[in-house]
């Protein structure tokens, strides 16, 4: 009996963990294309992550632990991967990126990056309830929005993979008209400027409620690339399942080492467009603090 109980419990755990990562499974109809060679830029991204942690540990801002100012790659690069156009598909163009993070057992965080078509100069990054840049005033983090040195996909992956030990990151990306990208950016900047007094969109979110905030943002400002009504989940994996249905232009899948090439998935012609209406689904319990 004891053996049977262990077997049943073990199977239950497997089913539960599989359900907690269902959004990381690529649906049928999507095909993988060659990912960019991320090796060279990952080195710079790792340097930025080390410098971030050096500041977190009480060291000199912008310098890695044990690295003197001006030595090696301890200094945070002025611009990390985004300097060279085309390293990541869509880099430098007007785009919306939604980041879904996974730990080994469950999804852990959701974030948003909006590019306006001028490299990283006008991009903004929203890290609701997270911790990126809290000890780095030069990153210009205001009310959960990073405005001065917003990380790109490769930098963000290096930071989360190395320091938070996250093994998997999905980046859902849509190409936007510049006017639409500017509307998204202005909504986030309104929250950055005014915090809880913002009238357009409030970006300040409690840890553990990042996914609900991102869903609200996409629902309000995502159309026309986001169609229909998004279901609301507490756990980010639920949003990932919804976003596959929204037919993004590409999905980047980062996993493994920080210098790994992301796999880029693109929708085939037989992938259906989004449904016009989706039923709200109650999210399960969730919460986290590690960076989000």
Short overview:
It is built from 6 helices and 9 strands, in the order αβαβββββαβαααββ. It is α+β, with helices and mostly antiparallel strands.
Describe what you observe in this structure.
The chain is globular and about 55 Å long. The model is unreliable at 6-19, 37-91 and 275-292 (pLDDT under 50). Helix content is 30%, strand content 17%. It is built from six helices and nine strands, in the order αβαβββββαβαααββ. It has a nine-stranded antiparallel beta sheet with strand order 1-9-8-7-2-3-4-6-5, with helices on both faces. Strand 2 and strand 3 form a beta hairpin. With 292 residues, it is an alpha+beta fold. Helix 2 crosses helix 3.
Record the SSE blueprint.
Layout: H1 2-20, E1 30-33, H2 39-56, E2 94-102, E3 107-116, E4 124-126, E5 141-142, E6 145-146, H3 153-163, E7 168-175, H4 178-194, H5 210-221, H6 236-245, E8 250-255, E9 263-267
Helix pairs in contact: 2-3
